[in-house]
């Protein structure tokens, strides 16, 4: 587990919205900061992945939209957001992953070893 201050998570969620247009919630801001902390521990060459588990809709009347003071030790003010890349989820219930790889819709260096969709095969 990685500890992230609530205020820092709020600031990060706001930053993700303002700078990248990602309407994420406070948990997503916390996940992003947690991933950064892990990468800082592992080194610049480490690849760390996280997910954004929520959107900002449920937070529109909460602290997410209030002023949040920047406190000493917060990581979010130090973060420069340069961009993002959304990866299509490979779902074996709605596509044949090998077709996605072959068509270039998914970028994998190896073939995906998943079974094709049962519904598409027999539906």
Task: Describe the overall structure.
The chain is mostly helical. It has two domains: 6-78, Rossmann fold (3-Layer(aba) Sandwich); 87-123, no CATH class. The chain is built from four helices and no strands. The longest helix has 17 residues, at 26-42. The model is unreliable at 115-119 (pLDDT under 50).
Kindly summarize this structure in a few lines.
Helices cover about 35% and strands about 0% of the residues. The chain is mostly helical and about 120 residues long.
List descriptors.
123 residues; mainly alpha; Rossmann fold; 2 domains
What is the element layout, followed by pairings?
Elements: H1 6-20, H2 26-42, H3 97-103, H4 118-122
Helix pairs in contact: 1-2
| CATH topology label of the largest domain | Rossmann fold
- How many domains make up the 3D coordinates? 2
Distance linking N and C termini: 43 Å
**Can you identify the CATH class of the largest domain?**
Alpha Beta
- Strand residues, percent: under 5%
Outline, from the CA principal axes? globular
The topology string of helices and strands comes to HHHH
Number of strands: 0
What kind of sheet is the major sheet? Answer: none
CATH architectural arrangement of the largest domain: 3-Layer(aba) Sandwich
User: DSSP helix count?
Assistant: 4
Q: From the alpha-carbon coordinates, what is the Rg to the nearest angstrom? A: 18 Å
């Amino acid at each position: 587990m990685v500890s992230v201050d609530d205020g820092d998570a709020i600031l990060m969620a706001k930053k993700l919205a303002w700078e990248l247009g990602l309407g994420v919630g406070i948990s997503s801001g916390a996940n992003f900061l947690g991933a950064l902390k892990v990468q800082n521990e592992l080194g610049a060459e480490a690849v760390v992945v996280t997910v954004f588990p929520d959107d900002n809709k449920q937070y529109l009347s909460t602290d997410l939209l209030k002023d949040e003071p920047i406190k000493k030790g917060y990581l979010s003010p130090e973060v420069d957001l340069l961009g993002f890349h959304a990866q299509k989820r490979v779902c074996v219930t709605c596509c044949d992953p090998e077709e996605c790889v072959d068509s270039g819709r998914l970028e994998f260096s190896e073939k995906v070893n998943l079974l094709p969709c049962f519904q598409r095969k027999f539906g």
